[in-house]
Design a protein that fits this description.
With 396 residues, the protein is an alpha/beta fold. 46% of the residues lie in helices and 13% in strands. The chain is built from 16 helices and 11 strands. β3 (123-127), α6 (131-139) and β4 form a beta-alpha-beta unit. Keywords: Aminotransferase, Pyridoxal phosphate, Transferase. It holds the Pfam family Aminotran_1_2. InterPro entries: Aminotransferase_I/II_large (IPR004839), Asp_trans (IPR000796), PyrdxlP-dep_Trfase (IPR015424), PyrdxlP-dep_Trfase_major (IPR015421), PyrdxlP-dep_Trfase_small (IPR015422). This is Aromatic amino acid transaminase.
């Protein structure tokens, strides 16, 4: 029967990885893969993580299952990190945490939960959005729609977004990026979040907030503004959180599905259904990543160390954004690419066309997604002059 199966194109980013490895250009630059990199181009293990793992290795007594919802200790630290230590939602027992295999796993749990418990509801994603959003929600059998997010001049199209949200059928689900929008880097201001909240209330829409990069934008609490605003002012919110990025534990696949309900009783009803969804997907989540996060956030010394390291990572990225624009000034391109300094997170929607991206790859060994999305963490003070010169060449 396998004779009927056709080969399909591989993932575009994975293809970039292979092409980059084979490139013999000594000045080649990888701006494609979405992981944090330090000044040496490495994705390091954070010091706090190393110390936490050492403690876990010393004290661990079992490798047994942790249950469909994951380890309670993990939920106990993730919920206040996302919703705030003084959250009225948490005090009212309105929120439920389910540990998941990464933020992607949390999204799939959310998708299957929506498909089974809210049948017939459509789901709306920004245009553009993280490409895997399309695959996850479509695979769950949910009808997918788009709302505008970036205009033809590579700027945040908030007016277009808001107008589109006002036309979405009541009860549908709207996917919002909490911060560090992937792939564009354009985030909503606090005032814009207030306006989105008003529309969600008016249209009785259900927000699904993808919170993959907490701490990479302006700060742990600052980046959570939109999430907390919606949770405090709406009866029902779905949040998908990831610790894979801000703890640098990508391969441990450490995420969380957070559901906010109107009251504690409804939360328990929802929680019981999520347990079934998790059981049918993967039974139990991996334990190690969650244990690392719990160990760090339950310990004042490790928590302070982690926050300091996260701040260093965030500051490095934001500095590189400004330095990138500055490097383009001699070529008269600083105003054209000024948006890069305004964006937040690891990714930047540069405005480069697919043809320009192709030229950067073929002529200069600079690799990024053809949409023009670049991983800013791939910049360095060593390669910025080369990048600026190459971008100037393809802008002729």
């Amino acid at each position: 029967m396998f004779e009927q199966i056709e080969r399909v194109p591989g993932d575009a980013i994975l293809g970039l990885i292979e092409a980059f490895k084979k490139d013999t250009n000594p000045q080649k630059v990888d701006l494609g893969v979405g992981v944090y990199r330090d000044a040496a181009g490495n994705t390091p293990v954070m010091r706090a993580v190393k110390e936490a793992e050492a403690r876990l290795l010393k004290n661990e007594t079992t490798k047994t299952y942790i249950g469909s919802h994951g380890a309670p200790a993990y939920g106990d630290v993730v919920l206040p990190m996302v919703l705030g230590a003084d959250s009225a939602v948490l005090k009212a027992n309105r929120a439920s945490a389910t540990q998941s295999p990464g933020g992607t796993g949390a999204l799939r749990l959310a998708a299957d939960f929506i498909a089974s418990q809210l049948p017939g509801k459509g789901i709306w994603v920004s245009d553009p959005t993280w490409p895997n959003h399309h695959g996850i929600f479509t695979a769950a059998g949910i009808e997918l729609h788009k709302y505008p997010y970036v205009d033809a001049d590579n700027r945040l199209d908030f007016d277009g977004m808001l107008a589109a949200l006002k036309k979405i059928p009541e009860g549908d689900v709207v996917v919002l990026h909490a911060c560090c929008h992937n792939p564009t880097g354009f985030d909503l201001s606090q005032q814009q979040w207030q306006e989105v909240l008003a529309v969600l209330k008016e249209r009785q829409l259900l927000p699904l907030v993808d919170f993959a990069y907490q701490g990479f934008g302006e700060g742990l609490d600052e980046d959570a503004y939109g999430v907390r605003l919606l949770a405090e002012n709406l009866d029902e919110v779905i949040i998908t959180s990831s610790c894979s990025k801000n703890f640098g534990i990508y391969c441990e696949r450490t995420g969380c599905l957070i559901l906010v309900a109107k009251n504690a009783e409804q939360m328990e009803n929802v929680r019981s259904q999520v347990a079934i969804v998790a059981r049918e997907n993967y039974s139990n989540p991996p334990a190690h990543g969650g244990a690392i996060v719990s160990e760090i956030l339950h310990d004042a010394e490790l928590s302070a160390m982690w926050r300091e390291e996260l701040t260093e990572m965030r500051d490095r990225i934001n500095t590189l954004r400004r330095d990138f624009v500055e490097a383009l000034k001699p070529y008269g391109l600083d105003e054209k690419y000024a948006c890069v300094a305004e964006q937040r997170g690891m990714f930047s929607y540069t405005g480069l066309t697919p043809e320009q991206v192709d030229r950067l790859r073929d002529e200069f060994g600079i690799y990024m997604v053809r949409s023009g999305r670049a991983n800013v963490a791939g910049f360095s003070h060593e390669n910025l002059p080369y990048l600026a010169k190459a971008i100037a060449a393809v802008n002729d």
